[in-house]
Amino acid sequence: MKKTLLTTLAVASSLAFACVANAAENNPFGLVYKGAIMENVKGKVNIHPVTYTLNGLKIAANVYTPAGYEATKKYPAIVVAHPNGGVKEQVAGLYAQRLAEKGYITIAADASYQGASEGTPRNVDKPQFRTEDIHGMADYISTYPGVDANRIGALGICGGGGYTLNAAKSDKRFKAVATLSMFNSGQVRRNGYMNTQLDSIQARLKEASDARAREVATGEISYSGNVDFDALTEESISKIPTDLYREGMMYYGKTHRHPNSTFRYTTSSLMDLMTWDAMDNINLINVPLLLMAGEKADSLYMSEEAFKKATGTKDKELFKIPGATHIQTYFVPEYVDQAVARLTAFYGKNLK
């Protein structure tokens, strides 16, 4: 059975790769998802690369405007936070574009220290920065021509989902909050994926502390999560035991690869990551909440936990996308369509 599943994955990935390979080079906006905008056409959904300053750093973002957009009208808006290791040109851009097709002004930005956004050392990945990035998207989009600042929603994908939950605890500009394949970065960095590293927490905290000490003493930056995408082979990927990481390697390393996308993060970031949890004070979210995850995702347990602990809102839903794994919700048309349909109904109801 496992061999059959892996063969199916390999075939599907090969087909996807044939469609998406070199998309970043071929697409004038660097977008790598299927059906991405190739040019701005009057009367249709358009994309607008923008930059803005957040805490002294220049942030790179894409704003999508709906068909027939007029700056004098008023539109609801949605901020979209990308996954860990991801960039705005991948799944965040796909969902931002699809929601713009439904009439929303949307924004997808690269996190500070990541992608095309400023910040050194590169690939710092701290919860407080990632959360502030979401507040920053709300800052920018709330004053964008045509946006109704009283109708702003949030969508966080994977790691961006955990950080979106964190941002929504305090940012009451968000009138409706949704996540897709939510990943609780703090919990996973601390306990390991599916709680597989509980016995090494103190050792890994010591490594993070030592890495910070080296940064201060010598300026040397240590990185964790280094992956050589060029060295990835079908055989090596097939040996990865969890769906999330196995299919994630294929998505980020092969089928939807982008030069700004990397799994690595500064080892010292773990001092902050491992002592943080997206579930802390989640009861402070008091607006409508939609948690979406693949029915077959091995990461589903994180969305289920969030749903259980989000006691501050009575208007909440956990939607399990039938048949989908975590990564498949990023690009497989039938699963994306289901997620977008659910989001359209959710935002349509709550961002009137």
Could you characterize the architecture of this molecule?
This protein has helices at 2-20, 23-26, 91-100, 127-142, 159-170, 185-191, 201-218, 234-238, 243-255, 270-273, 300-309, 333-350; strands spanning 46-54, 57-65, 75-81, 105-109, 147-157, 174-180, 223-224, 265-266, 289-294, 316-321. It is α/β, with parallel strands linked by helices and 352 residues long. The chain has a single domain (2-350), classed as Rossmann fold (3-Layer(aba) Sandwich). The strands form two sheets. Strands 1-2-4-3-5-6-9-10 form an eight-stranded mixed β-sheet, sandwiched between helices. Helix 3 links the parallel strand 3 and strand 4 (105-109). Helix 4 (127-142) packs across helix 5. It is globular, with a radius of gyration of 19 Å.
Question: How many distinct domains?
Answer: 1
Main β sheet profile: 8 strands, mixed
Number of helices: 12
**What value does the average pLDDT take?**
94
> What's the arrangement of strands in the largest beta sheet?
1-2-4-3-5-6-9-10
The outline comes out as globular
Strand % is 15-25%
Number of strands: 10
The CATH class assignment is Alpha Beta
Give the CATH superfamily: Alpha/Beta hydrolase fold, catalytic domain
Structural class by SSE content: alpha/beta
Radius of gyration: 19 Å
CATH architecture: 3-Layer(aba) Sandwich
Q: Poorly predicted ranges (pLDDT <50, ≥5 residues)?
A: 1-19
Could you spell the SSE succession in H and E letters? HHEEEHEHEHEHHEHHEHEHEH
Helix content: 25-40%
Amino- and carboxy-terminal Cα gap? 47 Å
What is CATH's topology name? Rossmann fold
Name the assembly state: single chain
